[in-house]
Every structure is written in C-alpha cells, then in structure tokens.
Amino acid sequence: MTEELDEGVRWLLDISNRSNTRPLETGTPRQARIDYNAGFPALQGAKEAVASVEDRQISGPYGPITVRIYRGVGAPPKDGPGLLYLHGGGWVIGNLDSHDEICRWFANLAECTVICPDYRLAPEHKFPAGLMDCAAGLAFMAESATDFGIDLRRIAVAGDSAGGNLAAVLALMSRSGAAPWLAAQLLIYPNTDAAQTADSYRRYATGFGLTATTMKWFRDHYVRTAADIVDWKVSPLRAESAAGAAPAFIATAGYDILADEGLAYASRLRQDGVRVVSRHWPGQIHGFVSMGRFIPVARQAIEEAVAAWRSFEAAPD
Fold first, then answer.
1. DSSP conformation letters of the chain
2. What pLDDT was estimated at residue 317?
3. Does residue 83 lie in a domain region?
4. Total domain count for the chain?
5. Is the pLDDT of residue 297 over 90?
6. Residues recognised as catalytic
7. Domain range spanning residue 130?
8. What is the pLDDT of residue 3?
9. Is residue 317 part of a domain?
10. How many CB atoms within 10 Å of residue 151?
11. Which CATH number is 155's domain given?
C-alpha cells in the first residue's frame, strides 16, 4: 500500500522511522511541545514575504490572547477579505510559529488579512477554553474590520487538524449569532468526531505519522469528561444539523487516520444543504500542508482553498 505514497512523504516517513523519534504520548504535554517545536522548522520552507506582520494582544474570556496579523501582498486598503486561521496540534501543541508558513500563503494567495490567535492549549486549558479564545479572535476581526480594510461580508475561518475542528465549530456557532457571520470555512484534514471510531483509525493506526494512540492522547487531554466527546462543539459531525453553515472547502489526505471523518463531514454538510468543495490527496499523510519544504503540493492545497473561497463569493447563497 505504501507504494502509492507521495515520494516526499515516503522519504520523510523513512527518516522518522530511522530516527526512532519518541511518540508524543510517552511524555508530558510540556515535553511534547518541546519536541514538536524542535522539529517543525525543518519541515517548513522559506518564509514567503508578506506586506506586513505584527503581533498584538486582545482580550479574551480567559485573559489576554496574542494574535498574529498578516497583511498579504496586494491586500486592498478597504473592502478586502479577512481570514481567521486556527493552527493544528491536537489542541495540545502548536503555536503562532508552527503554522506561519500556511498563514503567509493564505495572506498572499487571497490578498487578504490573516489573523492567527495563539489560543490556549490543553490540558492546562481544557475544552471549551481554546474554542472560546478562537471565538474571541473572530469577534476581534469583525469588530476591527474597518481598521484592517476588511469587508464584514468577506470574513472566512480556516484551520488544519484540531484547528480545522475549531473552525468547523465556529462555522456552526455563527448560524445563531454565537460567532460573527462567515462567508466560508476552509478545513484542512479536520477532526470532526472525537469518538475516533472511523475505519481510517484502523487502516492507518500506525506508520503514517499521526497515530491513533497519539490522537487519543490529544483528545483525552482536551475533553473534560466523556460527555464532551459527543458534544457538537467538540465533534461537529454530531451536530443535529449543519444547515445554514458557511460554504466549505474540505481537504483530506489518503493515509490519514482523520480521512474518513473529514469525508463524512463533507457528505454531512452537502446532505444539509451546505455548498462543499471537497479535495482528496490520496498519496499524502496528516500534516502534509505543514511540510512545504519537502511536499510541493502543500502550497497547492492552500491555492485550492483560496480558489474555493473565491468561488463561494462569486456565487453567494
């Protein structure tokens, strides 16, 4: 089966296997962050220049939140698009630097303003702390839209993995006014069902980067009790209805334990009348969009997300 893997992915997996890197779940969350922070810079490509980058602190329900604000090259001074980007990392790891490459791509390709919040991480801050920080980041973007040259009708949310989970939940929250209105949701291999019962958890349990054991470790640090697992704000696939959510772009990877739930969420959204552009990369693994130095299609995934976003604007509901 591995003969279908992308060449760059196969090379990275071989390097990882030979290095005997310890699984994140064998240490503490603090140690997992140290290990992750030591490794991700080697996977990112050269930083793409943007018009500007600044860090700023905003108020959140649990205290101050640092946000990083990117202005893309060509972003208009007014009436432009805005994107809230939520980084991945299983709600436990990840930070403003770990997904800097993706934010720069989005800023330039969409000629937009990107805001990325450094939301609180589990287990120190369990659900719903991180989600509420992300909601505060979205509210800040909407409230400051004029200052950033953003058209309120052109705000989208995006994220990968756990960030894709948070983005999907914000898109559901926005229907009732619990979060600002959204023009699009751009989900990159999102986690949509914390029950972790999809068959892809069996097919790709080990040997393809993110393992089923690691994902359970992430999930168990994030939730407070087992009851949270079936809460739609943790498992958006379990929402009673997704009707009225923003149009969605959903990217999935072939050799990913989250593949089936990403595809299931695309199907669920369509079933509930939401416009969906679904794109599957069969030879890729979870996290491939953060591996731009070795996987050229990483940037292509962001290009396709931006193209879908623009298609939603061109043909609004």
1. -GGGS-HHHHHHHHHHHHHTPPPGGGS-HHHHHHHHHHHGGGTS-PPPP-SEEEEEEEEETTEEEEEEEEE-TT--SSSEEEEEEE--STTTS--TTTTHHHHHHHHHHTTSEEEEE----TTTS-TTHHHHHHHHHHHHHHHTHHHHTEEEEEEEEEEETHHHHHHHHHHHHGGGTSS---SEEEEES----TT--STHHHHTSSSSSS-HHHHHHHHHHH-SSGGGGGSTTT-GGGSS--TTPPPEEEEEEEE-TTHHHHHHHHHHHHHTT--EEEEEEEEEETTGGG-TTT-THHHHHHHHHHHHHHHHHHS--
2. 66
3. yes
4. 1
5. yes
6. 161
7. 2-312
8. 59
9. no
10. 16
11. 3.40.50.1820
Please tell me the total number of residues recorded for the chain in this structure.
317
Tokens, residue 146: 């004029």
Average pLDDT over residues 107-123: 98
Task: Report pTM.
Answer: 0.97
- Which pLDDT does position 2 carry in this prediction? 53
Average pLDDT, the chain: 96
Q: With 70 as the cut, is the pLDDT of residue 176 above it?
A: yes
